[in-house]
Amino acid sequence: MMGVSGADDDVVQIQHPNNPGDPFILTINCPDKTGLACDICSIILDFGLCIFKGDVSTDGVWCYIVLWVIPHSLLLPMNSSYLILKERLQGICPPCLASFYIFQQPSRSSPVYLLKFCCLDRKGLLHDVTKVLSELELTIQKVKVTTTPDGRVLDLFFVTDNKELLHTRKRQDETCERLNDILRGSCISCELQLAGPEYEHNQGISSLSPALAEELFRCELSENEVRSQALSPDMAKLKKSNVTLDNSLSPAHTLVQIRCADHKGLLYDIMRTLKDMNIKISYGRFSPNSMGYRELDIFIQQKEGKKILDVEKQSALCSRLKLEMLHPLRVIIANRGPDTELLVANPVELSGKGRPRVFYDVTFALKTLGICVFSAEVGRHSTLEREWEVYRFLLDENCEFQLTGVAARNKIVNKVRRTLMGW
């Protein structure tokens, strides 16, 4: 039954499985707010977890959420990290006590720090560093990576600290020590300081040509992607998504029924879309994966508490959901002069938050393929419809993997996309 918890510690509970391989059960019992489900799914995705199934229920004031989650890969030692996960989830839940909820001051955004280090280059370096930052609970906001002619790498990582402790000497020393451990003595210098004006002045991405921007941000998949032999089975599966609305089953709610191909971050993509469209979830049930597909039943209302009766609004919602399920991430290979460039883009929430773990997954895919990165950057790009987070990787032509030829490029795109989608 929904109601006020006895203590803040009761807001989030994590039940460990009885048998290895079984799901962990997350229970969240707190005041409701629009977009809460999206924020929860974002954190779960950031921890490398997959939502096996779930139930969401709210009376408009209080919500009760139960999620069965499993590690999506072996990247997360869940047994040792569940306390951190619990703290992160509690941090986004509205306070339980009404007086605190009404009079609390809005939380300020976390300060951005600049992590700058120089080291000798080697294969897989960028992913290894990203993995350490992820384990340290540091969120990457922007990256600038450059390889010098003498085989050195200068990395600039703009990060925020989920633990809010990066201002302390102990936390800074811990970060540099962990980096030194992973760099295995090849570190030349490591500095960590509060970011200055250069962070705000360099939020944008390097200029994209009109043709490149059109291909990267178009609503539909490009012909090259659709026709690619390597991608066609996945594309055919994604195109089978089905979204229907029903106003006959509830006097106050619109039922959204979704059947679509499962992928990593699916629930985040759906909840992000509903949050950005200012739609409230009253009840939702997420069924387990069956033969690679998921089914969802979600009872929703508009922000003023009414069901969606307008035909144009219904069509817009269905179209938007289908687009996000078919094309949640954009991955293309392009020529940058004589060089080969990999570009990955994902939509940014209206709140300004980007998708979790994208940089981690892309660098992991490139490391797996044996591809070295000559330079990399992360920034924002705005189109008429929305803001995007763009990841640009200039690939090293001297690596063992051959970058020339359609088949080779399709293999890179396929590997990166499948890693991002969890396939």
Can you walk through the features of this model?
Mean pLDDT is 85; it is low at 1-7 and 98-107. The chain has helices spanning 36-46, 78-92, 98-103, 125-135, 169-183, 197-201, 210-217, 223-227, 232-238, 266-276, 311-326, 358-369, 406-421, and strands spanning 12-15, 24-31, 49-58, 62-71, 113-120, 138-147, 152-161, 187-194, 242-246, 254-261, 280-286, 293-301, 330-336, 339-347, 373-382, 387-395. The chain starts with 11 loop residues before the first strand and ends with a helix. It is an alpha+beta fold. Helices cover 33% and strands 31% of the residues. A hairpin with a 2-residue loop joins strand 13 (330-336) and strand 14 (339-347). The chain is globular and about 70 Å long. The chain folds into four domains: 12-92, Alpha-Beta Plaits, CATH 3.30.70.260; 113-194, 2-Layer Sandwich (Alpha-Beta Plaits), CATH 3.30.70; 233-326, ACT domain (Alpha-Beta Plaits, 2-Layer Sandwich), CATH 3.30.70.260; 329-422, 2-Layer Sandwich (Alpha-Beta Plaits), CATH 3.30.70.
> Which class do the helix and strand fractions yield?
alpha+beta
Q: Look at the structure and give the mean pLDDT.
A: 85
Provide the succession of SSEs.
Answer: EEHEEHHEHEEHEHHHHEEHEEHEEHEEH
| Helicity level | 25-40%
Question: How far apart are the termini?
Answer: 37 Å
For the biggest β-sheet, the strand order reads 1-2-4-3-11-12-10-9
* Cα gyration radius (Å): 22 Å
**The CATH top-level class label of the largest domain:** Alpha Beta
Pfam families: ACR10_N (PF24914), ACT (PF01842), ACT_ACR9_3rd (PF24931), ACT_ACR9_C (PF24926)
Keywords: Repeat
Domain ACT: 114-197
GO molecular function, one term: amino acid binding
